[in-house]
Design a protein that fits this description.
single chain, alpha/beta, 151 residues, 5-stranded mixed beta sheet, globular
Length: 151
Amino acid sequence: MQPEESYLIQALEYAKKAEELNEVPIGAILVENNKVIAGSYNLKESSFDPTGHAECRLIHEVTKLKGNWRLSGCDLYVTLEPCLMCLAACQQARLRKVVYGAHDTKGGAISLGYKFNEDIRLNHRFEVIYFPVRECEVILSSFFKKKRESK
């Protein structure tokens, strides 16, 4: 198993925590020096917070722990492609790399063409990698299928 897959599988464990709370099952972990330093998951619905995405919550938590808003040298692994807000938070936090396991063609920043992580006009650029992990897609499609069936 490649490291990307291993880290995304760990992020899936956080996505499952979100699902248990009837939140959209998206999970994320932050890796520094090949070690997972923290993980988080969506809490947008229960917190009534539009910024309650897994990535934003994780960045907020780790910057508080480190006492520094710069997370240079850290890599984010997230089960679903980041939205514009989350990708911007990654840019602001100076992350080194973002790896995601499932595309989001309706809300993902990269899928929609907003590749500002590569924009030379900005003061920080970083790598964004799509590393497909089937379980990342399955948990989301299963969640929304159950939602539709319960209506």
